[in-house]
Amino acid sequence: MDKKKKADRREYHREYGEQRRKEQRRITLWVPMSEYDHLREQATMHGYKSLPAFIQHCSEAYLDKEYLVHRPEFLQEMITQIRKIGNQANQLTMHTHALRDYEQADRYRGLRDQVYELSQYVRQKMEQPILLSPQLLGSYLVKLIEKNSSYLDDLEAFVYRKRRDLNRDDHQSD
Which pLDDT tens digits describe the chain residue by residue (174 residues)? Predict the structure, then answer.
């Protein structure tokens, strides 16, 4: 490569890097190998090939209080099966119309409508976060602590900081 091309290439990469740093930020995260393995396993289970993309989507979903669907293809398969049932109900409706059995056709039409409502309900519930009651949250935390006792220390530190922050806020508002 001649000097002119090398200089142009360097200039291009410099400008590209400057523009990228204006628009994006890199985050580096260090975790113990056990947590890394767990994250990698969860990313694979949720259908992600890229661990950073999985972590980014998880954090965005958490902040937006959305539910990251466990195996999105599972949800799609469930919706497909419900739609197949709805299509069969629709075919039965059309068949009974051809036979001029309108009473039976109305029943099948009602079934078809209920199947449609079911598919909408399933999709809505699968996309919403699960709201944990204090009892469910407590049992979840117990399971986490049983798996990894260091979570207890982290939880105690978190509770301590949260209480300190709440007390500070209470004193400032007085």
Answer: 577 778 888 889 999 888 988 888 888 888 899 999 989 988 887 778 889 988 888 888 777 766 665 666 667 777 788 888 878 877 877 777 777 877 777 777 777 787 778 877 777 766 665 555 667 667 777 777 787 777 788 778 888 888 888 888 777 765
Question: The whole model's pTM is what?
Answer: 0.38
- Going by C-alpha positions, the residue among 39, 80, 38 that lies closest to residue 59 is 39
Strands (E), 43-128: none
Give the span between the Cα atoms of 88 and 108, in whole angstroms. 9
* Structure tokens given for 82: 């419900």
- The answer to whether 34 and 148 are in contact (CB under 8 A) is yes
